[in-house]
Amino acid sequence: MELQERLEDVRAHIEKAEREAGRPAGTVQLVAVSKTFDAAAIRPAIAAGQRVFGENRVQESQGKWPELRAEIAGLELHLIGPLQSNKASEAVALFDVIETVDREKIARTLSEEMKRQGKYLRLYVQVNTGLEPQKAGITPDDTVGFVELCRAELGLTIEGLMCIPPADENPGPHFALLAKLAGECNVAKLSMGMSSDYEIAVAFGATSVRVGSAIFGAR
Q: Which contacts qualify for 199-204: CB closer than 8 Å, 24 or more apart?
């Protein structure tokens, strides 16, 4: 199956999941995760109409997206991997959305950097719903307070929450927890669901799903 066919298949599954959840068509944004793939591999997805992409690393993204953006208008780039403070300047310059705000230090650094560049990104707070020690993210208990800190003290636009459920657990309870926390934080967006579970995420209220291998193939 060619990339365009895989992309259409994912879009069709999202539309079906929206219908089954009783949600209006087009309410779920597809973030095509293009990490590890070069510009040549990404161009067919752009040609098929995909405009929103997710990347894990700032340095890798710098090697392909400036070129692609110079060629094609209207591309939107999300950082969905962990961000180190020393990469904040480059991240603000390159990305439109950062989905992995996960600690006070990075929130403060982003606030200062966005003011310096005069470029204000949309931000998501990453929540470690499974309390996994090896995984980034704010604990569920600390999420409401952290979002309030980001907004009230740092002046950041927190538009949503993001999570990556434990690989060996049913993702449903994690998606339900994130949706509950989003209500408590008064944020509208939920970034949840990947290639293996994005249809379940749609049922639990995802507003965006991050799908990579189901579109681009195995890495």
A: 199/13, 199/14, 199/16, 199/17, 200/171, 200/172, 200/175, 201/171, 201/175, 202/14, 202/17, 202/18, 202/21, 202/23, 202/28, 203/17, 203/20, 203/21, 204/172, 204/175, 204/176, 204/178, 204/179
Residue 86 predicted with pLDDT over 90: yes
pTM attached to this predicted model: 0.96
In the beta sheet, which residues pair with residue 184?
A: none
Tell me the C-alpha distance between 163 and 166, whole Å: 10
C-alpha 212: how far from its chain's center?
12
C-alpha angle with apex 82: 149 to 170, nearest 5 degrees? 90
CA distance 97 to 165: 21
CA–CA distance, 103 with 138 (Å, rounded to integer): 7
Q: Are 162 and 177 in contact (CB under 8 A)?
A: no
User: In whole angstroms, how large is the CA radius of gyration of the chain?
Assistant: 17
Cα–chain center distance at 94: 15
Q: What is the pLDDT of residues 89-102, one digit of tens each?
A: 999 999 999 999 99
Amino acid of residue 85? S
Distance from C-alpha of 181 to C-alpha of 144, rounded to nearest angstrom: 7
| Model confidence pLDDT, tens digit, residues 135-188 | 999 999 999 999 999 999 999 999 999 999 999 999 999 999 999 999 999 999
Read off the amino acid at residue 138.
I
